[in-house]
């Protein structure tokens, strides 16, 4: 564990060294948040509420989407695996006494911590001061928002790592990155909350793992889930996390064997 803590610290310090890249990424996220807020202001067009959802709720939803999606970058994880595969560095990692996916998780945790603390939070504060933001529905919902954000980080990482490992068979990361980007945009609730989806698509979308990236953390903050539902969907998120971790472990074991056969 000491080695992985050092990798996380290295990721944090690397972000400090390349802070211009981080700020450029945050500026892009800031533009996206402003764009989503502008779209919802245009959609509501003077109407204060649609299906019980106020315009303030939707602005808060757009800001929270920036909070949970602004720190972690799926493209960075997918490209890291693709670069290691292309350069052959992944074979070197197999010789080291560390688990490569856990190394990626530790580095991403360090980089995400830097981005979240020093860039995302100040950005959201600025946008919230301009447009306004709803407070948490209750102390319980405020307390549960952070565990849901932790789940969002883990599921985000696991999905990106699974797509990255698939490059061992497809030998390309560009198409995998593009596919994951499309799936996250549609199925995380980042663009449109699932309560605006027609049935049964809303029910289906709200039970797949990407829903825990944006939809459920935002729904918890806004109080769209009562106490029982919040705990239920937190448990379901843990189940999805365990299933994705098992899938990544199986894929990595198969990919490692594939490298051994080719190298032998």
UniProtKB/TrEMBL annotation:
Keywords: Membrane, Transmembrane, Transmembrane helix
Keyword Disulfide bond in annotation: no
Keyword Glycoprotein: no
One Pfam entry name: ABC2_membrane_6
Domain of life per record: Bacteria
Protein name, UniProt field: ABC transporter permease
Membrane-spanning residues: 37-64, 114-133, 145-172, 178-197, 231-252
